[in-house]
Amino acid sequence: MLNRKFYKVRLSGIDFDTTRNTVSDMRSSDMIDIINNSCLKDLGHVIVYKTLFGHFRELITGKEIAAITESLDAYSESEHVYYMTKKVPIFFKCNTSLGKDNKRRYQTLDSLKASSEDIEDYLRCHLGVNKDDYSMLFYEYFSDLNTMESDEVSKYNELLSHYGLVKTDRRKAKEERKKIKALIKKYNN
Fold first, then answer.
1. How many CB atoms lie within 10 A of CB 173?
2. Which residues of 113-152 are buried (b: 16+ CB within 10 A; e: fewer)?
3. What are the phi and psi torsion angles at 141 (to 5°)?
């Protein structure tokens, strides 16, 4: 863990009330399009590290944190590609391209590096200084992160229904198709 780079990132979320009042229409149910058309709010700072597979995990709990990453398209110097590492409406934005990128919208990962003082303050803030309280504070912080994520997901689903964009579950859709096929077979005989 000594060679690992840590990044101090600002978590963002969708400001659902402001978005409902100011945005009249959403055309796509893709999460990145909804986030780009929505009003955002600040949810605080988190220190994360990047895994070998390109995911970002929180320093204390190891919980995966969603990121919207921007990178240069392959064989291009001007077109950008955006994707989410995890489909959750709590996220941070970063640019992961390594080459010269003059038209980027997000900060590069290197500019988000956390200093040793940042890491020390973060650990002291969330785990305290008393070693006897570490396990209790760890689970409280982990619970807070999970609660924040589940609240934002439920509000996001409400936002989808507000704009008439229904989130489809592939398993349920597949089960529905099987039921329809079974009914067609039953009544065609």
1. 10
2. ebeeeeeeebeeebbeeeeeeeeeeeeebbeebeeebeeb
3. -65, -40
DSSP annotation of 143 reads H
Q: Which two tokens stand for residue 144?
A: 């807070």
Element spanning 8, H or E: strand 6-14
Q: Which two tokens mark 157?
A: 């689903």
Helix (H) or strand (E) holding 70: strand 64-72
Strand partners, 68: 84, 93
61-75 pLDDT, tens digit per residue, is: 999 999 999 888 877
pLDDT in tens, 121-177: 999 999 888 888 888 999 999 999 999 999 999 999 888 888 887 655 667 777 777
Q: Check if the beta carbon of residue 114 is closer than 8 Å to that of residue 6.
A: yes
Read off φ and ψ for residue 134, nearest 5 degrees.
-55, -50
110: amino acid identity, one letter: D
Question: 18, 141, 151, 45: which is closest to 89 by C-alpha?
Answer: 151
Q: Contact 17/39 with Cβ under 8 angstroms?
A: no
